Every structure is written in C-alpha cells, then in structure tokens.
Amino acid sequence: MAAIALLAIHSAAGAAQGNDDLNSVIAAMNSRAAGFRNVSADFDWETHNAVTAKLGEKDEVQTGQSYFRRKGQDLEAMLDIKEPSPKQLLYKKGVVQIYEPNVNRITQREVGNNKSDVDAVMSLGFGGRGDELLKSYDVKWLGWETVAGVRAAKMELVGKSPSLQKAFTRAVIWIDPEKNVAVQQQFFQGDDYRLTRYHNIKVNGDVSDKNFKLQTKPSPEIVKM
Length: 225
Prior knowledge:
Strand content: over 45%
Strand order of the largest sheet: 7-8-9-10-11-1-2-3-4-5-6-12
Shape: globular
Mean pLDDT: 89
Number of helices: 5
Radius of gyration: 19 Å
Order of helices and strands: HEHEEEEEHHEEHEEEE
Distance between the termini: 63 Å
CATH topology: outer membrane lipoprotein receptor (LolB), chain A
C-alpha cells in the first residue's frame, strides 16, 4: 500500500510539473508573438506511408526552403520544394496555390469559410500566441526534448474543429520557446505521418514580398479547384 501511495504522489507531482512547464511555454509564446514578423528556414519533409513501408519502400523525403510572415491579421506562407521534384506551395490572402514547374501548372483553391482553421495549421509553431494554440487545439504536454541542439517543448495537439480533425488526427510539435518557432513538426493521419525538420532558422530576417510570389515560367496553366 505504501508503494502504491508513493507512486500516486510521484505521478501527481509529475503532472503538476508538466502543467507548470506547459503554462510557462504558453506564456513565452504570448510574450514573443507581438514582436514576431517573419521566419525563414531550410526544411526536410519526410512522408511515411504505413502500408508501403510494410512492403519495404522507403519514406519519401523532400527538401527546400520555407518562409512565413504575418501582415496584420493575415498569414502568408511559402514552401519552395527543391528536391527531388521542384514544387512551390503558396498560401496568401485565403488562397492556396501549388505551382509545378515540370508541367508549368498552377493549381489554386480558395479556403473560404475554413480560413481560420487553415491559418491555425499553416502558422502552427511560427510566431503565434500560445492562447491561439489553446483555442484551436487540445494540447498535451510531452516534456522537453533536445532537437538539433535546441531545448524544445514537445506537445501533442488534437484539433477542436471538424475541419482540423479532418486535416490530421493529431500532431506533435517541438517549439523553441526562446524564438517562438517550431524546430520540428509531425502530423499524423492514422498510421501515416509527415515529419518536417527545420534548419538554419532565422527570425525577423531579410524576408520580402518576392519570397511570397510564385516564380513561374511564362504563361502557366491555371487550374481552379
């Protein structure tokens, strides 16, 4: 009985410490959000398919550069994939555009009434307030973990709205609370996942309008979804 009581006390103490750590990270995000303008980083984007993995296929890995910035209440994001197949993904003014240079085609879609949820996904770990995180997600504290030399706060997120739940069943993010940016993100859909690692992260650096404009060949085909 004494051993059980000690385990219960230890478990309660651990939970209390976890709540304190989570609250401090949320407070740090709130504090640093006001000064956030933009962030740029290199990334590698690993896509894991559970079915094909069982057949011996390796995970697909894409690499490139990413740019995020806030302009007033609006969020803009650009993912410039370089390898193995070039592609640009731009989110701006509530419109998602994907440019495929190999076929010179832009596919675009307006997010419409789902804009707030799309913003919640695209901005996840990039200068947002901790209060906004708690508003959009159920957040579970997973502890501290060192990622690429950075002491990062590891948290599991489950979307509160149906559209967020449709986008992914759960996510795990690793936040550098000193910079209020993600150093790593993992989005799950069942047993499948997408793991993104960020490198050479620069906050409030030399990011301009040209970084949020598709670089296309002349006269690309435009497909509206």
